[in-house]
Amino acid sequence: MAPGDYGTKAVPTYVAAEAETTPLPKITVPLAPPAPPGGRKGLGDLPMRVIYRIIAGAAAVVGVGTVATIVVLGKTGSEPPHAAAAKPAHSPLMATATPTLSPSPTPTPTPTPTIPAVLAAAFADSRLQELPDTEKKLGRLPGKPAPRHGVLKDRRSGVSVPKFTKVWRPVKTKAFGSRQDLPQVKGSPVRGMVISCPLPVAAQDDMRDTALLAARWTLKYQPKGTTLTWTAMDDLTIGKRDAVVLGFNAHYKVKGKKRTSSAAVVVIDVPNKKPALVYAVIPDTQKKAWRDINSVVSGIKVP
Predict the structure, then answer these.
(1) Rounded CA separation 66/69 (Å)
(2) Crossing angle of helices 207-217/117-124, nearest 10°?
(3) How far apart are CA 303 and CA 296, in angstroms?
(4) What is the 3-state secondary structure (H, E, C) of the chain?
(5) Would you say residue 65 has pLDDT above 70?
């Protein structure tokens, strides 16, 4: 094209390229031809029909490219089974799609610990509340502590307990190593009592479980139908020996009326002997003496 014919001749060859059947035509925006002598022309000097064709050609290319991308992606996601089977066996795509998986190792089952039958029976006993998950100290119970004078030594169990005076009376017994009683209250089937003896139940690996069995054992000294709820569970050290206290309330009925006894069992690890048990229980008819349970727990001694 001669410089003098710029803008007056046939459509340039780059416009005719849009009619070709190439899948993704390459659009090339032509550089402006050399400016004629004495002047310089830019894009604004092109005829409007040429600019319109350039814009239309670019839009067509963008549309064709978008459709081609959608078709390719559609084929990739929905390729029929026979098409995949037709691919050569050595195709890298086939090798990636079918990796060889090694078999997973069979996990070794964890053995279930065996619970002693006597402990399982205690866990299933509806008369007992489930033991608390955390420690709880024995609180200060109401009442005024009775005066004490020395200790009562229990040679059978290897421990000593505080010896109360005034309303408390020591009782000679063959069933326990030591025993002290409060006076019987008319109409009450339960009386205040403090006893010590060698552990009358099977010792468990966990002293708290042993205390649970000991608390269950005390039900034989409570009215029929008594249930227990825990008020304390605390690990102690008595004379450098391990011990645990389990405090509880015993709930029962007397002539249809609800009654409660406050109680505690203490299990102590005694050297060269089986563990010892100290048990204190006082009914609500003698509630003024409940503080003596605190005195018993804090006054136990191991030689």
Answers:
(1) 5
(2) 60
(3) 16
(4) CCHHHCCCCCCCHHHHHHHCCCCCCCCCCCCCCCCCCCCCCCHHHCCHHHHHHHHHHHHHHHHHHHHHHHHHHHHHHCCCHHHHHCCCCCCHHHHHHCCCCCCCCCCCCCCCCCCCHHHHHHHHCCCECCCCCCCECCCCCCCCCCCEEEEEEECCCCEEEEEECCCCEECCCCCCCEEEECCCCCCCCCCCEEEEEECCCCCCCCHHHHHHHHHHHHHHHCCCCCEEEEEEEEEEEECCEEEEEEEEEEEEEECCEEEEEEEEEEEECCCCCCCEEEEEEEEHHHHHHCHHHHHHHHHCECC
(5) no
Domain with CATH 3.40.1000.10 in the chain: 124-299
Q: Using CA atoms, how far apart are residues 77 and 75, in angstroms rounded to an integer? A: 6
> Where do we find the tokens 């005066």?
147
Statement: 124-299 belongs to CATH 3.40.1000.10: yes
| Per-residue tokens: 225 | 């139908």
Q: Could you identify the residue written with the tokens 């002598």?
A: 37
d(CA 245, CA 301): 14
**pTM metric for this prediction:** 0.64
In this structure, the strands spanning 257-268 and 169-170 are: unpaired
- Let me know how long the chain is: 303
- If 0-12 CB within 10 Å is exposed, 13-18 middle and 19+ buried, where does residue 76 land? exposed
Spatial CB neighbours of 231, under 8 Å, sequence gap ≥ 6: 136, 138, 139, 247, 248, 249, 262
Contact 194, 295 (CB under 8 A): no
Residue 169 is encoded by which pair of tokens? 């009376």
Please give the residue that has the higher pLDDT: either 28 or 263. Answer: 263
- The percentage of residues in the chain with a pLDDT greater than 90, rounded to a whole number, is 56
Written as six digits, the tokens of 181 are 């009683």
